[in-house]
Amino acid sequence: MSVAPSPPGSGSATTTAAPTLRSGSxxxxxxxxxVVSAAAPLTVMAGVAPLAILLGGIxxxxxxxxxxITLAVFAVGFNTMSRHVRSGGAFYAYVTxxxxxxAGMGAALxxxxxxxxxxxxxxxxxxxxxxxxxxALAGTDxxxxxxxxxxxxxxxYGGYRSIxxxxxxxxVLLAAxxxxxxxxxxxxxxxxGARGLSLAFFAPGHVLVPGVVAVLAxxxxxFTGFESTVIxxxxxxxxxxxxxxATYLAVGFLGLxxxxxxxxxxxxxxxxxxxxxxxxxxxxxxxxxxxxxxGAWAADLMHVLIVTSVxxxxxxxxxxxxxxxxxxxxxxxxxxxxxxxxxxxxSPYLAGIAQTVLGAVVVLAFATAxxxxxxxxxxxxxxxxxxxxxxxQLLAALAVPCYFRxxxxxxxxxxxxxxxxxxxxxxxxxxxxxxxxxDLFTAxxxxxxxxxxxxxxxxxxxxxxxxxxxxxTRPDIYANFAAEPSIDTDN
Length: 491
Fold this sequence. Notes:
By secondary structure, the chain is an all-alpha fold. The protein has 19 helices and no strands.
């Protein structure tokens, strides 16, 4: 059979397919590396756990266990939804299917603001952590802005490269930051702690104390980012199995590891002395413990690894944001140019460049205003991001029973009704706790905290308004928002 030649000017008879994300690149461990790295376990423990001990006493480990259990219950419905909704939009796709397109659009904007706030704020922490490390090791003070800008370039390059490259980097960095905490634990266990090992933290008298509410708020914030497993669905091997396994692995590891390490540092000082030690020097609590039980060299290494822990978190969050940007550009919500994928690295590189530019603009604006990199860039930008992600988790939990009520399925009631409703109630409580105790996270005035907390509902309402406008002006975009992919991404 002959083939007619192409008309003049029509180009070749064959076309080259546009590059896409590299499917089958990530296994369970790879995805878990991304989401656990986003939580920055070493930074959370050394930087926040002393405050949890100061507020909640020796019962603080229970707060991390309770937060982990709550999020594990949330993961039941979340993972069940992932088997039925294959859109690259993850959170906003789930909310769209369960609560409708306007709520889904609000969730999409919340995801962008939430993950962007989490990442950009961390450039302030990167600067102060690096300053602290250089001062501790070399006795030299360095300016913070060059450190933040260098971090932006480094993280931007990591996002530009392939997802496999990022997974390898995060695997090494995560092993290092958890390894130094395991080393501390080994030293404390071998030497029997300050006064012998104790399990008194389980006693109701130590758990049911006024400060436990504050500990729970801090503990929920420590898990931020674990739910981003579903963002990597298009790049996962056998995503129907890989994504749920990675989600359970991440939340299980974080909950148990956090509780164990907080218990370890309590044992390092003793049940009766640890609260006083945390109050006297909260920033140095972990460094003092590892110096006593392992050696001064380990404290120096911990300083360095806190910097790499923040870098790992930045890279993980950057990759997550890039994929949300890609999905929304493909939807027609963001400029189509952001949907371009690198032909060799198969990364959403233009979305990554846009995020890096946005980060640079925010960092430079804070620097120009003379803002403090920790007290303002980190806390003021990071806090709305954290609240936005908690709100997203709540919306996703509410969406699960609404979705399964309308479709035929063979899932059980525990997965589709009971667990999601229980999780929604617990997450709503957590969100209220965090908002009520926002001064713990910001150390700011009531007026500043009110503005920071108001960002989340304002962004969600802006999404609702944008959905109404799209339905009127671009009905095709609105009708196809969060639609299922045309090909089976699970194969």
